[in-house]
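Input set for joint prediction.
Command: fold jointly, output tokens.
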Amino acid sequence: MSNSAALLLEVDDLHVSVAGKPILKGLSLHLAAGEVAAIMGPNGSGKSTLANVIAGRPDYVVTRGSLRYLGTSLTDLAPEARARLGVFLAFQYPVEIPGVSNMEFLKAALDSQRGARNEEPLSAVEFMKAARSIAASLDLNAEFLKRGVNEGFSGGEKKRNEILQLLLLRPKLAILDETDSGLDIDALQTVAAGINRFRGPANGILLVTHYQRLLDHIKPDSVHVLADGRIVKSGDSRLALWLEENGYGWITDAA
Amino acid sequence: MLSAENFIDAVRARSRTLDPALPAISDQRRTSVVELQRIGMPTGKLETWKYTPIRDFYAPPFAMNVDSPTTLPRRDTGRFLTFSGAQAILMHGAQPDYSAVSIRHGVDFTNLSTDAAMPRPPRLNAGVDLNRYQLAHLNTALLEDGLIIRIAAGIDAGALDLRFFSNSNGANISRVRVEIGAGSTLRLIEQHAEDRPTNSVLEIDIAPRATLEHTRVLPPTTPPCWYLVSVNVAAEATYSLAGYATGSKVRRTDIHVRLDGHHAKTDINLACVTHGRDRLDHQIVVEHIGVDTVSRQIVHGIAAGDSELTFNGRIHIHPGAQRSDARLTNKNLLLDRKARINTKPELEIYANDVKCSHGATVGQIDPAQMFYLRARGIDEHTARTMLMRAFLSSRLTAWAREAGVETIYEELFR
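tokens >
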């Protein structure tokens, strides 16, 4: 118990099916507060499924095993309940919502999370100040907040918008699903700086990524390799470098 | 229930009693009664009335207006939205009251019943396709009063807000004719808050190079309501319509836009919502008659509960209307299992050099958008509401938004 108190996330023997098809097949993973874990693996290994099932995506069904956050089971909680407890998913493909302004969306999200913690909603002025300052730190101008959520955003803008939400909502557990994909080198540095700003002794990060390059900017404490719905290899940051050299071919060779 | 013959007889009898008070339209009234007798009661097998029961509009309240109406106070009942800069004209049933309008030079109001010495005889039904809209005959036969607004050439006539409400326990039979002179501009608002059966005809004639910006607001009501908006658009003139509508027991709007002159344009945006057991039906016909005419129709609909939402958009390109450019889009959200959406975009093309596109979709709230919002802590109900508002808001003009037009959809967001 003394150990689990410091654990943010405990995934044990997790089996998940999507549209009746098993994707995760007995995945176990523990993440401590303050830890940054990289989840790597080939396409189709289940990385995104893991990210989405923790956030509570409705059509992702846990068929066996457990998913605990700060000692509480997440499996029966609605996505909004998980978010309010401090779980955050940065989407691989952020959804466009024309007609809802980014500002309105961010305010609604922040108000609902503050409300759940019995905190007063921020005034419009306080909110705007906070949102503008975070936007500026991510090289996004204030005009960006007035646009429809992700509407017509470039790939890089969408990813930066995810990091903006991360910094504004201040969760405890951040799952970053291929946040590095589709970013040029400048955007990658900006996004990495944002993630490093979030990093801290109380926060945990699951960095889901296909490539090493994000890890040049955010040094992980641990690296896990996912294949066919299970973790097949774990190590420290050197494992990521080894993967960069050797690719994922050894997985099928080993199997 | 009245039989067909009895209903038409009742209409004829009623029209005779109304005639002396409104001599200006005597001839037109007689013509309409004769036509109604000739046509008889519609059978309900008409294609354009497939989803909305036309019989509800040939029902007793329409023919049996009370002889001495229970006159309601002549004041704004407060059920109307306030559009900034617009001057209100109250339509108590058929009776217009424009006393509160500070009339600009070049804007002329004619009250059919009281302005006996009319400079010109009223040209009622001049642009109305009476073969298509036979209920306009009923309107003419039963008219007690009406309003003609004439805008001279070359002026900005500002914004006028027509506010329709019931003034008796009979039916509302109302008629407004708007004539906009060459090169002039008018912003016209049409708000309907009738709580009695309604038959309302709005005729619009837009002269060359003139512009009408028309906003329609139909907040929730209960009785059967039929409205006709019949518009003629001359060369280089523009008719734009922003319509915001909710349902009733039966509620039907026919919109007929004729792009008569070259380079005439129309731009139609509608946001329609039904819930409960309501029905709402929009039937739009846009005729491209002149060359180089342009039409755009974008209609968004949401149907919830046990309601039925109907849209029919017809684009008709006449022979010789070369280089016509017509587009029509109808998008719908179906929220509940028992809700129904009927949509039918139609194209009829008799010219060879034209650009036309039309499409209709019926879908549900996007689960990916829902998950995105909920993953940020927004509860399911709020997320749904945000997405429905967003779907409708793309059709809202800034002016209508500022006037609070979204309040007419509140029931949906509960």
